[in-house]
Amino acid sequence: MASRNLATSLKRRSRGDPMQAYDALPADLRHWLAGAVLPWSAASVRRAWLKALKAARGDRQAAQAALSGIERRRLERDVARIWGKAHPFLASPDAGGHHGRR
To answer: Which DSSP string corresponds to 20-39?
Structure first.
């Protein structure tokens, strides 16, 4: 068992059950998440979803497209930082490798 820092006065954060958090997501968001490239947590994808859904005025497809855009931009940033701007991923027309899946 991993040792804990018993000298701290900070309260331990409860992370809850990750599967329960995933199961609580709306079905269309779980479907989008199943095809996501990045390992989103249920909490972070829920925050992004609610923000995108609000911006899209309830249009769920537009919110999914916004999530795909967030994911694509994060991938572009990481690929450029790690492998350089000449990486084939950045040269692809859809720059995210989704190939029209969503």
So the answer is: HHHHTS-HHHHHHHHT-SS-
| Segments making up each domain of the chain, as ranges | 66-102
Neighbours of 39 (CB within 10 A): 7
Using only C-alpha atoms, what is the Rg of the chain?
17
Q: What is the pTM of this model?
A: 0.70
CB under 8 Å to 98, separation ≥6 — which residues? Answer: 35, 37, 68, 72
Question: From CA 44, how far away is CA 77, in angstroms rounded?
Answer: 18
What would the pLDDT profile of 41-80 be if each residue is shown by its tens digit? Answer: 999 999 999 999 999 999 999 999 999 999 999 988 888 8
One DSSP character per residue, 43-54 reads HHHHHHHHHHHH
